[in-house]
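User: I'll paste a sequence; please echo it back and then give the predicted structure.

Assistant: Echoing your sequence first, then the prediction.
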Amino acid sequence: MSLPVSSVRDMSKGRRLRRAKNRIPETSADTTLTDAIRRALGKHPLGLLSVASLFIHVAKPGPLHEEKYLDRMLTGLIGVRNRETTALLAVVAELLVDDPAAQLRCRHELAERNEHLPRWITALPQVEAYRAVCITDVLGDADELAVGARLNGGHELTVAVLIDHNTFSTVVDVGVVPDPIDEALARAADFSTDTDVVEMSLADARVRIENALSKPRLAPETDTWPLYRAVVQWLITRLPEGGEHRSRATNWEEAEKMCDGFFATSSAAPFTDPSHRELLLELLETGTGDPLRWSTARVEHAIGDPLYYDDRIPLEVVLDAPDLLRAYVPYAHAQSGIRDELTSRALAVIDARRTSYKREILRQAQRWDFDDAV
């Protein structure tokens, strides 16, 4: 899942489980849907799953899609009665887990046909998800939840969902490969840096993916998202329920403890106003909310697009945010064992944003003064 999204740190480089060979190939203008399905049927099941997921994506491009458009697309598919369209209709019916009415329509049509389909298609409801892991970024920017599944006939799938914690812990990319999860993880390990792989229960994987899917998505679309959304939604319905939700909210007790420790050091000596502590607590609430880890993406979130509110923190203290953060980040990373190179990258972004931050804060403060005078 090579992810060109700047809000996710180096997890986007090389480590993604998707491979280009698994994308749906572009076809020439005169290639029919039947031809595409026939080719997919001759390969790994992921080929036809991809076609079905693409069909659903086109028919249901977003939460505000017109139901009649899906009906029209299904009518067109139903109108072509051959083995290939029957196979696609069967897979589409399985993936439409969020649309029972459309799913029922597909199944009524399938019941009237007498086509012999590959066993793996008719056995899709019995897919076996058997392992889930969380690949965690050391700086906390993102988690990649990978689920290994087995289809009838020994076919394997690995689905990987990337969750960005700097943008409301929402899904920003997804990848699917036709390999056992052990092989996919072994390949990813060759390119991984600053990540940890943690085993998790299938139930926990389900609740975390469902929660991420329910969040607003602000990142741009990628090659594979939302193309594989239907596959992901289908697979997670096959995972057990009852998982434990993991909150990403700021741990205020830990944050206040970190503040106390920092302001007791010589690095905090320039910051003598009592409001500096309140400012630091506000900075700790940005991004992932983790007081111990600061990536370049999180720094961008904290000071890259600042907002000034004329309230309890004086303007002269608000202007100190880049300098305060520059002093705090090395202290925090020393506590959490983050390597020096990652710390240097975060400091470089602070230095690069320092002037523009102060200029923007002053501009907004002048506007506040003007509004107050009106």
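The chain has 15 helices and five strands. The two ends are 53 Å apart (CA to CA).
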